[in-house]
Structures are given as structure tokens and as C-alpha cells.
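re: ur msg from earlier - yeah i can do the heme C complex, just paste it... oh wait u already did. ok heres what im feeding in:
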Amino acid sequence: MDSNNRKWVIGASFFAGLMTAIALPTMSAATPETSTGGKNPLQGMTPVEASKGLELPVGSDDAAVKQGRYLVSLLGCASCHTEGALIGKPDPAKTLAGSSVGIAYSNPMVNAYPGAVYPPNLTPDDETGLGEWSLDEVVTLLRSGKTRHGRQTMAIMPWTSYAQLSESDAIAIASYLKSLEPIKNKVPRQVLPGNPAKTPLVHVGLYRSR
Ligand code: HEC
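and the outut:
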């Protein structure tokens, strides 16, 4: 009786539209304990919809810049590096100028506070973007993940795949980025695992149904 009652209440909320946040606790009550001690690690999370309609700035007529724009579009750089591209609506005034949606880098199914990195500003603004990076430094980042300060970026920035870029393709991407209008936009600082992030997070994981 009690549990039927509870299911009904949850069902009602389910139809109120809070699908992930409300539906998962019902299921975990009926399934065996999970590695998180039966606690639903996604409690308090809400589903969001990915946005569409990202347009890259055209840049100059230079052949390398054109090729760079083509590659940047193909490799999806702007879907991470643009405000509003992952949630809501991409801001056309801030294309490629970084995002305040963090990317989790430990597993939120295990760690309630998984830590987050923020895709930085790729426009050539001196203070908040790649303004002080040379063309070669951008090429090195793309092919090795190493920043101009020698720090190894997380593999969330897919440099392990971009390491396959030919030198001329990497130069084309860097030339396109350097040709953009500088946009001032500072992204939040990295959040270390164990600390709550103040922004929404994306997590990419590999899961298997029980
Ligand atoms: C899946 C999301 C994602 C995609 C796709 C992506 N990046 Fe990144 N990128 C990141 C994140 C996150 C960081 C920061 C990583 C860190 O600090 O450890 C980053 C860092 C960088 C940096 C270093 C900038 C700095 O100030 O330190 C450059 C340059 C960069 N990305 C360029 C690109 C380009 C060009 C592409 C497309 C060819 C691209 N990224 C695609 C997420 C992404």
C-alpha cells in the first residue's frame, strides 16, 4: 500500500516533466544496490536539450583560412568552445569564444563532484583568448595537447585524435583561429574533483545496463 502510494506520487511527477530527476529513484528502489551504495548519483540532475544552429564566422579569403574553417566545422570545435552550444542556444556574438558549460573529468556515477574543465576562448583576444599564442604554439596544442606553458591538457580536448592531423591541416586550423575577430570572454577556472562546480556539466561515459 505504502509503496504503491509512493509509485503513484512519483508517476505523477514523472508526467510533470522531470524525467531523469524523478524517474531514476523509482527504478533504484526496485533494483539491486549499485556501487554507489544504492544512492542515486544522478539525484538532483535534470535533463537538458542540446542546441542547434551553430554558424562559424567566414574569416578571410586566404586559402589556409578557408581550409581551416572547413576543418573546424568538420571537427566540431565550436560545439564545445562556444557559449550556449551545449545547452540553450549558441550565442552568435561569442562563437568559438569559450564556454561556461564544464566538462566533467571523473565519473559522476561514482564521485558526486567529478571536477570540470571549461573549453577556453579560441579567438585571438590577448587577455582571455589565443592572442598571445603563435601559430606554431596552436599547432603544437592541436597535435600534442601541450599548451604554450607546457601543461598537458585533458584528453577531453580531443588532441589524441587531432594528433593525426597533417601539418598543413593543423596550420590551416590555427590560421583560421588567428584570423577571427578577438572576443573578450573569460571562462570559469578548472574545478578539481571533490569540489562542487557552479555551472552545468557535461559528462561522457560508457555504461552497461544491469
Ligand atoms: C569535446 C569538447 C572539445 C572539442 C570538440 C574541442 N575542444 Fe578544445 N578544449 C576543450 C577543453 C575542455 C579544453 C581545456 C582542457 C584543459 O584545460 O585541460 C580545450 C582546450 C583547447 C585549447 C587550449 C587553449 C588554452 O587556452 O589553453 C585549444 C587551442 C583548443 N582546445 C582548440 C580546439 C580546436 C581547434 C578544436 C577543433 C579542432 C577543439 N579544441 C575541439 C574541449 C574541446
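cool cool. Residues 63-201 form one domain. ping me if u need the other ligands too
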